[in-house]
Structures
1.
Amino acid sequence: MRQRAKLLMGFGAYTSAVVRLTDLAVVLLAGWVAYWWRFDSLWMIERYEWGLIVGALLSALVLPNFGVYQSWRGRVRAVLVLRIFLAYLVIGGALTFILFFSKLGESFSRLWIFAWISGAAFLCVILRLIAYPFINRLRAQGRNRRSVLLIGDAHSCATAYYHLREVPSAGFDVGRILLTDADEAQELSGVSSEKYNPGVSIEHEEEEVWICLPLSQGETVKAIQSALSLSTGNVRYMPDMRDFRLINHNVSNVASLFLLDLSCTPMTGWSRLLKAFEDRFISMAILILISPVLAVLALGVKLSSAGPVFYRQERVGWNGKPFYMLKFRSMPIDVEKDGVQWGGAMNKKTTRFGAFIRRTSLDELPQFINVLKGDMSIVGPRPERTVFVDRFKHEIPGYMQKHMVKAGITGWAQINGWRGDTDLAKRIECDLWYIENWSLWLDCKIIFLTVFKGFLNQNAY
C-alpha cells in the first residue's frame, strides 16, 4: 500500500506540474494570437514581449490561489470554471493596475489586453472540458482509481457506498466496510462487510479511509481516528447529517478554528461582489430601456384614480432587515384602512388600470429602483410584509433562512408557478433550494424564464 500511495503522490505531483505548465503555455499562446489578430503581425515588439512575460508571471501567482490545481476528483466542476474566470479577471485587473501606475498604459493596446486575457481564460476552460471526459473514461475503465475503506454505521456507509457506485467517474472504489453496528447490516444487503472492533489498531491496504458516522458519535470517531494512527493514507470524516436542514454547508477555517458550516449565505467574497455587479448593471440597463414604459404606466396610474403613483410597502429583506419596496399603485388609497389580510389577492379591490398592471406584473417594474439602491436583487426569494414574517417564522420550518440573501423581483418559486395565493411552504422550499444552489448561471436561467413564465401567470393578481 505504501508503495502504491507513493506512486499516486508522485503521479499527482507530475499531473499538477503538467497542468501548471500547460496553463502557462496557454497564457503565452493567447497573448501571441491576440497580438497577431490585433496587429496582423507574427513578430512582437519588445514592450509587448515584456508585457506577455509579466502576464505569465501573474497567472503563475494568481491561479494557484483560486484552487484550480487542487484535486477535483468527484466534485462539481462548474465551480472550477467559475474560479478560472474569476482568476483571469483578477489577472486582467492586476495587469491594468501595473500599467496604470507605471504610466505605460498608453503604450499598450487595450483591445489586445482584453483579447489576450479573455482568450486565455476560455482556452483554459476548453482544455479542461476536453481533458475531464477523457479522465472520466479512464476511471470508468478502471484506471487512475483510489480504493476506500469505509468505517461507520450501516446507514452512513450505505449512503457512501451507493453514491460512489452510481458515480464511477469520481474514481473511488470501496475496498472494505467495517461496521460499528454490524447487526444493522441489512442496509448493505449483498455487500460484504466486517465488524469494527473497538480498541484494535486498524490496518488496511486502501489509499483512503472514510469515517461515516453521525455528529452525535464524536467519541467513536475519535476512537477510530486513534485506531488509524499507523495509517499513511488519507483519512476523511463524512458526518451523517440527514436530520439537519443544510444550506451551503461546507468547512470554514476562521482564526485557525475549523467550523462546520450548516446554514450559511452564499453571498460572501467574490460571490457577493459578482451578485452586486449583476444587479446594478442589469437593473440600470433595464431602467434605461423601459423608461418610456415606466412613464406611460405612471401616467395611467395617475389618471385612473386619485393618489400617488407609487405604493411604498414595508417588506423584510436580507438578514431580516426591513425596507420599503416600490410598486405602481394598483388599488384605491384607502383599501387597507382596516388592516391587511394574508391571501385573498383575487378579492382585493383594484382600479381598472390597476387590475391590468397586476395581472401582467407591470406593477412590479419600479422594484428595479430598489435593486439599484441595493435593497433588493433581481433574482431572489420574494419579500413579505413584516407582520406576516413575524407570523410565518413560527409556523413554517426554515422560513427565516430565505432572508440569507437579498429579496428578489423574480425567483425560482415564481417561475415554477408558486406565487399569489399558492402554497407558502412550497415557495419556501423553492427559495431554500435557490439559496443552496445559487450561481450566476442559475440567475441567468431564472431571468430568461421569467420573460416567458413570470409576467403572465395564472396566479398573478
2.
Amino acid sequence: MIEPDHLVAKLRFRHLRLLKEVQATGSLRAAGQSLNLTQPAISKALTEIESAFGFPLFVRTARGLTPTDRGSVVLRGATLLLEELHHLRSEAVAVDRFMAQVRIGAPPFLAQTYMPGVVAKLVQQELPVRVQLLEDRVPALIDALARGELDALVTTFPVQMLESDTDAFEYIKLFEAQFAVVASPGHPLARARRVEWTRLSQEPWVMPVEGSMGRKLIEDCFTHAGVPVPVPVIESTSPTTSVQFVGAGLGIGIVPDVALLHHSALRAGSVKQIRVVPEPPASVVALIVRKGPANPRVALLKEALEL
C-alpha cells in the first residue's frame, strides 16, 4: 500500500497540472504543447507519476489517452488540489481584511430569497468573511462542487443523488421548500376554490428552462396527474423575472414558499396563489459539501446556517 508520505515526497504541483492537461487534451503531444514541454519530457513525467501511485492512470490507445477507473479518482483529486491552491493564495492575499473567503453555490430562487440573510451573518462580523456566491442550475452547481470550485452548496437536489453520490458528498437537511402555482390577480383561476392539473394544462405557462429543478418539478406534477406537459409560452432562468411575467398576465407560474415570503412583488399582491389539487410536492433544501477533511470555511457557513 502506498503511504501518503511517499506521494508527498514524489509528487509536485507541476505533476498535478500535467495530469489535468493530459486529461483535458487526451494526448501527450497536446499536453506538452500547452505546458511548453517536449513529448519525451512529458512522457517521462507521466511515468514518474504512475510509478509514484503504483498503478496506471491512463489507457493508451491509437486515439490518445483515456483515464482508468483509478486514474479518474486521481484526476479528480488533482483538480481539487489545484483549485484549493488557487483559493489558498486568494485567501492569503486578503487575510488582513477578511477572516476567510467562502465560495457558495445556490439556485437563483434561494440566492435571491434565503441566502441574503445567511450572507449577512458572514459579512457583518467584526472581521468579515468574504463571500463568493454562484447562482446556477443544480446540476452545474454539483459539478462545480465536485471540481473544487465551490466550498458548499445550499440547494435543492434530486433524491436519486443520495444513492449515486453518497461517497462523494455530505448532505445536511435545512428545511423543506413548498411550491405554489401563481397567476396574476385578475386571472379567473386565482378565485377558484379548486383547480386540477388538467385545467392548468390548458393555460399558457411561464416556466424555468429545461434541465432545471424547477422545470422538472412542474413536468412531474403534470406527469403524475396523467396530463401532457404544456409547452411554455415563456422560459426564463430568473425566478424574479418569471414572477414579473406572471404578474403581467402573460402566463401561469410556480414559485417556492420562500419567494412568497421574501419577494416584494408577491408581498405586494401582484400575483395570487392558485389552489391546485394535488399541491406540488415539497423539495428538500440542504447544505451539500464534499466529504473529506474538515473545511474551516464550511464550518463558518454552518455557523451562519445555525447548524
3.
Amino acid sequence: MLGQDLLAVLAAVPGVQVTGATRADLDITRPEAVAAAVGDYDIVVNAAGWTDVDGAETPEGEAAAAAVNAAGVHNLAAACGARSALLLHVSSDYVFDGSATMPYPEHARTGPLNAYGRTKLLGEQAVTGLLPSRGYVVRTAWLYGEHGKNFPATMLRLAAERPTIDVVQDQRGQPTWSLQLAGKLAELGRAALRGDAPAGIYHGTASGATTWFGLARAVLGLSGLDPERIRPTTSTAYVRAARRPRYSVLGHDSWARAGLAPLPDWRSGVEEALRRPAFQALQPGRLQPAEQR
C-alpha cells in the first residue's frame, strides 16, 4: 500500500532514480541479499513489515514477525551503515501502550501491548542504535490507501450490504492517507540529504484526531450516504487475540526541527482518498463539495 504510493511520488521527482523491491525481489531477513540490494543508493526506505497483529500473538507468529520487523530491519540498518546510506524506516504507534491522554511526543516512553508492537520496537532500536546519525524512524498509525485493504473501503463495502454498521468509539487515533505519508517521506529524504533534518524519530500521522466511529461517519457522509447508519459500540464487542492501544494520537514536534510541516488534518486525507478511482467505484452516492456539507 505505502510502497506503491512511494514509487509514484518519487518517480515524479526530477533526477531521482527509484527502485522498488517486492518480497519476491528481496527477502530482508537475508543479510547478504540486503547488502547487495542497498548497493550504492543514497537512501533506503523500508516500507516492509509483518502486519498480522493477531497472528503474531502465538510463539511461532511472534518469531515470524520478529524475523521481518526486528532482524530484517537490523539487516537493513547494518547494510546502510556499511554503505553510508540513509535509512528511512516506517514504524508504528503500537510501540506505545495507549494509556496517554495527550499526544505522544517522539521521545515518550514506549511500552507495547502486544507481540507485534514488541517486534516493531526492536526494529526501531536497531535503526537508532546502528545509525545514530543516518537513521530515521517514522511512526505511522491508522494507515489506509487505495492499494490495499483499508478501513474506509471496508466501510463503503459494508454500507452496500447492511442498513447499519457498528463501529468502536473507544479507540482514538489519527487516520493517515498513505499517499500523503509517501509525500512526507519524500520531503524528509530530501531534507536529510541536504543535512537539514536531524536523524531520529518522527511521527508520520495526520494532524487532529478522531475515533473509528468518527472516521466511519466521515467516510459515509463524504460519499453521499447517511452517517447516522454508523452506530457506536465498544472494543469489548470485538474480541481479538492482540490488545490494541486505546489512544494512538502522536505529536509532531520533530518536523519543526527539520524545517518541515506535519501532515495536514486527517479529514483532508479522507476527502482526497475518496476522490480516487478505487474509492469512487465503491461509492453509490456522490462525493459532495465542501461548501455543500
